[in-house]
Specification:
By secondary structure, the protein is α+β, with helices and mostly antiparallel strands. The protein has a domain of 108 residues: SET domain (Beta-clip-like, Beta Complex). The protein contains two helices and ten strands; from the N terminus they run ββββαββββββα. The strands form four sheets. It has a three-stranded antiparallel sheet, with no helix packed on it. It has a three-stranded antiparallel sheet with strand order 4-6-5. It is globular, with a radius of gyration of 16 Å. It starts with a strand and ends with a helix. Zinc ion (ZN) binds next to loops.
Amino acid sequence: MKLYKTKKSNIHRHGLSAAQDIKKGTKIIQYKGKKITNKEADENKKYGYNITYLFTLNKKYLIDGDFKYNTARLINHSCNPNCEVVDNYGSEIWISAMRDIKKNEELTYDYGFSFDSYYKDHVCKCGSSNCVGYIVREGSRWRIKKLIKQANIVE
Ligand SMILES: [Zn+2]
């Protein structure tokens, strides 16, 4: 039985939610896509290619998940996620429960975007109490907070 189902999301147009209670550590859905090399990914970036669905698989390869058959791409980002991305010995990528999840809860994970000059292109509407307003990986969110603080001082 599938652990997930598609749903209308409160965060974005579509999302996935838990079809049943899910225990912490459970692999929920595989992140499927096309294997591409780091070099190919760099080339694609140069042409303004959408990098939202790229995941590092190992030193040499990434997974490009920008395909309809990759249902996992519907999962939204959250600043307070209930899932995480795990790689299976560098050969597969899975979305796994990082805590117990209740039936019908929306599935989310940290997209892990780095903080760069494009952060403003990725507005976050996750609604978590710790939301910084932009999709940026947890380890870099202090940079956003700092910017907001500085902006407030100027005003
Ligand atoms: Zn957020």
